[in-house]
Write a structure and sequence with these properties.
globular, 10 helices, alpha/beta, 213 residues, 50% helix
Amino acid sequence: MRSLAHLLENNRAWAVSMREQDPAFFSKLAEQQSPEYLWIGCSDSRVPANQIVGLLPGELFVHRNVANVVTHTDLNCLSVLQFAIDVLRVKHVIVCGHYGCGGVGAALRQERLGLVDNWLGHIRDIVGKHERRLAGFRDDDARFRRLCELNVIEQVVNVSQTTIVRDAWVRHQSLMLHGWIYGIHDGLLRDLQITAERPEEIEPLYTACLAGS
């Protein structure tokens, strides 16, 4: 199929619907964006960030990659984080993973998928770090679900350790980190209880999150 006319038609219908709800919607949106939230999530097409939290365009700044990974060498993610915190002055950074994540599953099963295997090495490191905890699950699905949660927890810690977040906290900027996970099977978000607004909160929260493993 060379033509994507159906998508363009969907866009026109959506634009009309938005103007019917608020005739000034697009003119206001064009003037500025002032989101309070940065969402760092997975690229999975089943996890549409704005929709699952009921926010409109302009209300959620979004960065997505395979398996919602945050590394200290990923200038793409760090640039988004810096722009969101220093320029847009977001008040919340949400790291959101999801159950059934293909990237997490591939890392757990040591599958070979191609170039993306290099990226998923970050998840394999988490598997190695928590090998004993994961080995305690006899059920494969339960082990998979827990690794999806552990990945989010580890990525929140990674966000907290960036110079961007640390500098924001040093200057007493209002900024809170959150770790959530989404259930594709039921459409619900779950708070993983790793919510921090000061650097000294991270370690005890991390320890508490792991205690249940």
